[in-house]
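ugh ok fine here u go
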Amino acid sequence: MNNQPFENKDGLQEDPQVAATLEETDKKCPACDGTMDFDPASGALVCPYCGNIVVIENKDGAPRQAEELSFYEATERASCDWGREKKVVVCKNCGAETVYDALETAGECPYCGSNQVMEASNENTLAPGGICPFSIDIQSAENNFRFWIKKRWFCPSAVKKDAGRVLLHGMYLPYWTFDSMTDSTYTARYGIVRTRTVGSGKNRHTETYVSWYHTHGSYHEFINDCLIKGTKR
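structure:
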């Protein structure tokens, strides 16, 4: 993709800024200089070209969990200009140029498939606090899909036939976790089911009735790490 100008929010032509990808997610193989892939089974980097394996070292002082932010401070930092500014990423593997929205932080080169993870565009952007890597590789995912679709009774036979040619692409989905101290007050009306015996002789029988009461009160609970999907797409 060529580094073409685009129209900004004012309708003026601008050149996208060139952004660099992170070295940690665009690691080059020390043996053949190819871009390495993360292997979920071993937790290491594996070169798809020569098979070389590089162990991922844990950095000293690296955070063990995502930073928790104040909700109101975070909303003040969040950018309100999503999708208007653009940036260009030059693939370190094949040299191709790809245009992204300025706030996008991850992608894949459409030409060679190498990872393109970038720094956040500016200080006003809420970058991800952490990433959960895939737990299975692409081959296992494709095998699981084929096995699953063959078990679908009402799936069209043509779809099952084409399942052998399925091509999956990994996708990272954004999630938020929220903490909140909740305080709730309530008024309610509740019923208690009771039974009683009425009548006499042959007309003696048991009937059921409900006794109704009014109640009110308050309830307090701390909600920790409530998981909410961060996209509707």
